[in-house]
Amino acid sequence: MEYKNYPETHEIELQLNGTSQKLTISPWTTLLDALREYFQLTGTKKGCDHGQCGACTVLVDGKAINSCLSLAMMQQGKKITTVEGLAQGENLHPVQQAFIEHDAFQCGYCTPGQICSTVGLLNMKKGNTPEEIRDLMSGNICRCGAYANIFKAVEEMVQKEVSGTP
Amino acid sequence: MNNFSLTQVDSAEEAVKTARLSTENNRYIAGGTNLIDLMKYRVENPDHLLDINRLNFSEISSLPDNGLRLGATVTNADTAYHQEVQKNYPLLAKAILSGASTQLRNMATDGGNLMQRTRCYYFYDTATPCNKREPGSGCSALEGFNRIHAILGASEKCIATHPSDMCVALAALDATVQVTGESGSRSIPILEFHRLPGDHPEKDTNLEPGELITAIDLPEKGFSQHFEYLKVRDRPSYAFALVSVAAALEIDGSTIKDIRVSLGGVAHKPWRLPEVEQQFIDQQATPQTFEAFAEKLIAGAKGYGDNDFKIKLAKKSIVRALLTALEK
Amino acid sequence: MKVLNNITGVATTRVDGRKKVTGTAPYTAEFNPANLVHGYIVNSTISTGTITKIDTTKALDVAGVREVFTHENAPLSVKINADYSDPMAPPGSPFRPLYNDQILYNGQPIAMVVADTFETARYAAGLIEVAYNTSGKSTTNIKDNLDRAFTDDDLPDPPKPRGNAKKAYQESEIKIEAAYLQPREYHNPMEPFATVAQWDADEERFLIYDKIQGVASSQGYIAGIFNMEKEKVRVLSEFVGGGFGSGLRPQYQLFFAAMAAKVLNLPVKVVMTRKQMFSFGHRPACFQEFKLSTDKNGKLTSIQHKAYGETSQFEKYTETIVDWSGLMYACENVELNYKLVPLDVYTPNDMRAPGGTTGMYGLECAMDELAVKAGIDPLELRLINYAEKDQNEGKPFSSKELKACYSRAAEKFGWKNRKAEPRSHKEGHTLIGYGMATGVWEALQQKASAKAIFTAEGHLTVSAATADIGTGTYTVMAQIAAETVGLPLEHVTFKLGDSTLPKSPIEGGSWTVSSVGSAVKMVCVSLREKIYARAQETHPELFAESMIEDARFEKGELSIRDGRAVSFMEILNADERKSIETSVNSEPAENRDNYSCYTHSCVMVEVHVDEDLGMIRVPRVVNAIAGGKIINPKTAESQILGGVTWGIGMAIEEEGMMDDREGRIMNANLAEYHMPINADVQEIDVIFVEEKDEIVNPLGAKGLGEIGMVGTAAAIANAVYNATGKRIRELPITLDKLL
Questions:
Q1: Per the CB < 8 Å rule, is A28 touching B4?
Q2: What domains can you pick out in chain A, each with its CATH number?
Q3: Contacting C residues, span 59-78, partner chain B, CB-CB under 8 Å
Q4: In this predicted model, what pLDDT tens digit does every residue of B163-202 receive, in sequence order?
Q5: Known catalytic membership, residue C706
Q6: pTM of the complete model
Q7: Superfamily of domain B226-327
Q8: Complex ipTM, two decimals?
Q9: Which residue in C679, C711, C710, C672 sits closest to C615, CA to CA?
């Protein structure tokens, strides 16, 4: 394998939580690392860095994706929403509030990903059976084992027909 | 992760041209879910990535012969939830939705799904010999952990399996893969798209270097009445198949008019034997018939120790999937 | 003196909940001081041997790389007179990263690249070329190496034998013999281990953000390695993304970050990859053998329990595995043995319910086998042999409402509907089975300190150097403080995760509420006394003649018997002294030694097994717990839900797959190391039975972090037997074992 000394860099522009942000990075920077290390948006978590845990889940054009498997350069022009972009000022997004009420987390590390996945699920208008909720939420591992309460929070949101977006 | 450059290409011609001009160490990237994963493990070390997301392959459209064309960069999620797919190809929808996670399905593309690489532990670990990753280095799985490995069509060079669910359904549905390359465009029947390992396990598919998948075509016949995708795995979601079965039946009364069964998790490619299927047309759809079918489909199956159980499991899974399809 | 504020015992949402749901709770890797550089660690690919060459030329050639650390250039200062032990180190010689060219286990950290960006460091790490001289003698399989098992003075003795178990076993007509094997399990908290280390060269001090379950652990470790006074090492760990025991001991990224920060005089961040999360302590593989016998009435006549646990070649890690067998059931003839098998692996580490979940898995499966043999209902067998006292120690229990657990669980679960005959309950292709097990865990209390500062603005800050690894420490401590002082919860803040705060035990062993909670209560009682004393000076007209015993502290006011009241703020603002501060050191009460203190549970599960395909689902679990007073039913329930979920993982999914040829773990990722996911968990009912305990600690609370897991795996294994008639004695019970 040939090694190269100097990675090429590009100036990119990302639509992050409603604002346009510029950044000069190399192709090897994932969206996750861009958020955490370059934009200090550390709400999005790195759990496995391989798409196997869901801690890095963000919304791209309203859909939940693993930001760890996405190169930042390839996300230009898309609407990216992280957990920091869900609340309206002091008002929490209903999903955030539901997670608090149902104690749907313990250590809190998987929580931003779980919440983004829930918002994505609401956007898809899915989760009409308990089995479907559990299956669609299975891309987010919670090692603390808060699944029973995560399920309750998501189910309440589905039943109340809460709107997901942004 | 390797140091690489990345360009976005605007046309298939440009993509193919760029790919051809460079070394074979280039890769197309669309969803990236498997490629980036492998690059982080240093299993894949491309010098250059060609982002094909801007290409005009992101639509699902009807074909003149009443079939359906899935653009190569349509996501797995958009495919599975597409109205036409749900209605006419529910087997495909079910297979896709049984794979990966919501997030991965939202990223992964249909073309990329075909290009998924094996989950063999040794392929993923650059510290161990693996003929697929490093031709000639040996196969660590033969005498190592091979619980998730192939029982059919393997070679002494490689006993890896193809990990896709979607491809198993595509195989049952007789899909066609449309590709374009430096010598023009061509259609590859799905059963000829993936390879058995033989002496060259480093080659997963029969694509020529630089060839680009543009679409997957589904024929009109979708078996929307009698179908089943059965996935047997260690965890009820977000786990790869130990054995999976895409089963499709066309039934007249209790007579089999058409039968398609393809298996996942058992071979280097989706395992389907049309010649066996032919033998069962016009037979009665009974558990005994399905058992006989299963025996023939996995005839010659061989275990490597940890995966011996798959032989029995595959048989039972085939019968179960066919009975479920029949009862639908 | 009366406290009327009902704050403890009431389901309370987490005080840190808002931070966690908005992504503003800062975890270790999220601190980015100016001029931060990033470390990326390289691990060995052989298990035993030596490094013959390590070529870092190409890595150093990459733009942005600051340094590559290997055993060849690690500073001498961390080799000479350095003490690598940490407060939780077992007997032996702790692993010393970069100490020499020796490889002790596969996955050993052998180098670290430091670069300006994470990506550069990761890239350059891939350019390091390592040549080894492998010994070719990797020994990592416990079952194949039982002949190497040993015991010595470093190992705690299991309880002494009582009666004559061998003889009683021989003479009994109803008896079973069974052996159980369980694999290595890996903690895998969602937050990877991470350290951000800053060195102050002028002051010769460290400021370290570390993922750890107790800042004292990291502080002691670093002070020992760098030969410094502890006070010169400040460790912060305010939010911990899960621990489960993995953070009881500092992990190697701490060494690397601190060493590099000092050498380079730059802040260094080192975050482990998920793969590296499989390269240190884990739940040890364990092999257990049981012989149990009863008389014809189901009365146990003998218990023999022998356990083999794995350890590394350099430390002797032990767990309490066999003691439970002498504790749980009334039996006059008991013989317990425990041995270690040294293997070429990293030293195992405590992992949720260490020892307890292992020993009770074996014991409770063996009891189930005995119940079948004796033709007695498994629950009935436990009741027949119910232990009214701790026979290992000859002591009474401080409290033991286990019978209530049995009856409440049985009632809720519908145990009476269980069909004793295996395979007799079937719906379609689904075999349905019921299983049960008993759970037990020590109710420990450690020494702890706490400090309280009550300001003239009316805000109370209580602090201790404990941790909140998701357990709810922030919330529960604030509840105890608010209730004790008589303040609304919003007026109380609890601070933790800072080594400058009052000393506290590491968060583990389910002892935080018991230990730190007792200190918090004590410091708040002390604060109350000081408020009262101040009030006697500032408001003599009210308090000069009264007694504190007659006073009420509630809703931010101090009142006396006739109903007259004055607010705390008025008292504090009455003169220039303003705020009140107080500190305490608490320790277990002496009379505690006269009792055995344990948390108990009964877990009942229903499993569904596909008769052809072997896939197991766990649709229903009931877990009834006797855990003393429940301070926060909401977070308490979450602890049990988590424990049960872990039990599901242990029973049917989790297995570290070590390729014994080179001692290498082959499923070091979250795709192939299966941990429970949302779809694994369906209905879980948690019942807390009423249990009063005035001995265990001043709170009467016993701790719940581990108990939810103990017994769950056994109950599932027993239910699988009931469903299928197959007794699988090797975890996890994957579908291939049922075909």
A1: yes
A2: 10-85 (3.10.20.30), 94-158 (1.10.150.120)
A3: none
A4: 999 999 999 999 999 999 988 999 999 999 999 999 999 9
A5: yes
A6: 0.98
A7: CO dehydrogenase flavoprotein, C-terminal domain (3.30.390.50)
A8: 0.97
A9: C679
